[in-house]
Amino acid sequence: MPDFNALLNAESFIELGARARVRSLLDEGSMHELLGPFDRVKSPWLQQQGLVTQADDGVVIAKGTIDGQPVVVAAIEGEFQGGSMGEVSGAKIAAALELAAEDNRNGIPRAAILLLETGGVRLQEANLGLAAIADIHAAIVDLRAMRPVIGVIAGTVGCFGGMSIAAGLCSRLIVTRDARIGLNGPQVIEQEAGLDEYDSRDRPFIWSFTGGEQRYASHLADAFCEDSVEAIREQVRLGLADNSATPRSECHEFFLGQLARVGQEQVTPEQVRELYSTLPEELS
């Protein structure tokens, strides 16, 4: 049974903004933000389309330590443009990962933590955002060979589009019950396939397939925890302590093979869990 008193007194991670989430994970006094809001590095494209910009383009990048271990944390602000990735915000994350890899090559064992609350590419920046996301993918694969790249999807935006691929490339992926992960978001599926296929207003149905608990049970996430700063920080600590696990993307043949077994009829959440109940040795 869960300790309900502890849950009531726990500080919610989901209720924090991106900058506060970063600060809550890092050792006290160790946070050093890079390209913060006072540097005024923002999207040059949104204002041209009559959209309000944000001085950090919706991404917080900070160096610091967790239990004394050097890390870089990138947090996406889901409240700004739905956490979407544009040229500047994507470049900030890619550069942070690339510099962390450079630190490792220079003898500084810096890991990375990605706090993912994003709808994917920013439609107003189209190909520029897609190129930035591709750079993020390449940088994750490069860095994870040396140090862990830990993804955290807490809620409430979820992680969709090209950034869901980034989540799948992480060394370790942490989710809460409120998290959602999917290549296409509910409204996109409904728009393309129709209401009979996917009702974006049916929240229990959506979470039963793409929610954090289901993704964890289907082995598409590595850790499932309560929405609290301490619970997520503990899972991050566990991920930093172990870089021996085989990345999920290295087992793509298994996942594709299981997916190929799905027919034309709508599967149930229970059938999805059954499909992925037996894992390859690398992941078990």
Give a verbal description of the structure.
The protein has about 280 residues and is of the alpha/beta class. It has a single domain (about 10-250), classed as 2-enoyl-CoA Hydratase, Chain A, domain 1 (Alpha-Beta Complex), CATH 3.90.226.10. About 40% of the residues lie in helices and about 15% in strands. It contains 11 helices and 9 strands. Strand 2 and strand 3 (about 70-75) form a beta hairpin. Helix 3 (about 85-105) runs parallel beside helix 4 (about 125-145) and helix 4 packs parallel to helix 5. It is globular. The two termini are about 25 Å apart. This is Malonate decarboxylase beta subunit. InterPro entries: AcCoA_carboxyl_beta (IPR034733), ClpP/crotonase-like_dom_sf (IPR029045), COA_CT_N (IPR011762), Malonate_beta (IPR017556).
Strand content: 5-15%
What share of residues is helical?
Answer: 25-40%
Structural class by secondary-structure content? alpha/beta
Q: Largest sheet, order of strands side by side?
A: 1-2-3-4-5-7-9
CATH topology: 2-enoyl-CoA Hydratase, Chain A, domain 1
Mean of pLDDT: 92
Shape: globular
Radius of gyration: 18 Å
Number of strands: 9
InterPro entries: AcCoA_carboxyl_beta, ClpP/crotonase-like_dom_sf, COA_CT_N, Malonate_beta
Organism: Thiopseudomonas denitrificans
Protein name: Malonate decarboxylase beta subunit
Keywords: Transferase
In short:
The protein has one domain: Alpha-Beta Complex (2-enoyl-CoA Hydratase, Chain A, domain 1). The chain is 39% helix and 14% strand. It contains eleven helices and nine strands.
Features:
single chain; 284 residues; alpha/beta; two-stranded parallel ribbon; 14% strand; 7-stranded mixed β-sheet; 2-enoyl-CoA Hydratase, Chain A, domain 1
